[in-house]
Amino acid sequence: MSEEPQNNQQTTSAGFQPLRNTNKESSSKDKMIEGSAWMTAGSIFSRILGAIYIIPWVIWFGSMSDNANALFAKGYNIYSFFLIAAIAGIPSAIAKQVAHYNTINEFAVGQRLYKRGLLLSGATGIICALILYFGAPVLSSGDVNVIPILHSLAWAVLVIPTMSLTRGFFQGYQEMAPSAISQFVEQLARVVYMLVTAFLIMKVQHGNWVSAVSQSTFAAFIGAIGGMLVLVFYYLRHRSRLRELAQNSKQELAIPTKQLYKEIIAQATPFIIIGSAITIFQLIDQYSFFSIMNHVFNYSTSLVNTLYADFAFNSNKLVMIVVSLGSAMAITAVPMLSEAKTRGDKREINSQITDALLLFAFFMIPAALGMAAVAQPLNTLFYHYDVVGTSILEVSAYVSVILGLFTVISAIMQGVSENVRAVAYFAIGVVVKLVLQYPLVAYLGAMGPILSTGIGFCVVSWLILRHLNQEYGIGFKRMSKPISGILGFSLLTFIVAFAVVRLAYLFLDPYSKMIAVVVCVLAACLGGFVYLYATLKTRLADFMLGSRVEQIRRLLRIH
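Structure tokens predicted for Polysaccharide biosynthesis protein:
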């Protein structure tokens, strides 16, 4: 490497990104925007891929598609919980601690932390995979079809913890590209395998639909292999630079291996709970919805399965595309806040919290309202024309704003080492969810779990925001004007998109998937253009994203 070793002053500066061979520094807001851009792109494209496959998948499963979706959701909810337990919050903890040690020029300690974390994540992966595989009959709650699904998913639990840990390591260096690209490749490999096996089993062999779902869930393992290969490539690419940083670090800290493990576990434990928050709520739904529905209503098993699929799989698949916006910004915020916390810079923490909330609102609110506006053609396109399914998707889109907000601010709490408090607030949210679950499901059916989830996370988010404001201050005054603009322009976007959908379906066939494509594209393009034009014209986009939007303004000839 021709670059000279970095001194301590550079290392602790706000703009230092150690794996970059450049002396150019950037502000924390610029880094947040860049990191968010990478993570958002990776997450959004992955989610879109994970939703698009549904269109042919549903067609090939035919009349069994709703049962297949319900089975898929049942298996995946249990798998998600075990996966989070296997990952054990280690990636986010590693990202936070690596950023901490990098800030004080102890790169060697951060790299040792990563290597010890590999052993720990490997062990937790093996243990959780074995429990998931051999415990499948108990976890299935008497549904024999769930057992082969859990068996197929156990293989992914072996690989994904190590993959996630390596992503966390790169994020600790504020390098989001490896995570984003590996996430996309993981999803691409997974979707290709799913579609190929579903087509072969259902259309060529005319086989059993449970076997086809089992192969579709086994695709998680295939995807994990693809994502891991990308990260190995990036690690080998930066290996010499990592070695150089370790050799030229201060090396004043001699931390025993036992203490490193304690540090990882202490930091990781709260991340397990907070990272699995949405999954925990989904598991509450899975293990309570059927019993409540059977107790209150005299519906057939097939109908209850269909209603469960409507909110737990169908709408969830699409809504998580929007929630991934919040997740992307949350991942970016953790190492940066950890750096500011290490320096004891409360002013910087205040600025980063405010910037994170503004960026979240700028992207999340119009995306959620836009999805609500096109709920009917979107549901028809991915599944089939269904009034109940459309209503559930629309309400889920609104609730996604709350889920996204929780994702961002819970990550902020972890970034500033308020882990225990974040867990305590989440526990309150779980109690709220449990208290509301029965009455809301009893009165509102499939809409009940969505609303109880929204209210539960709303309470948690309010508690977290109140604490952050008391402890670090949130720039509400600085936020008021841009937030007003975002809300106004998002509402205008919703009105335009909703009007296009309603006008189109006055004349067009609501059952047609091809018509749904046209209506979706037209409504999304017109609504999106309205938001883009309004934010550029009023310079709101400049305030949020800086001078980088000037080129778009010139291209669209907006003055």
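The CA atoms of residues 58 and 65 lie 5 Å apart.
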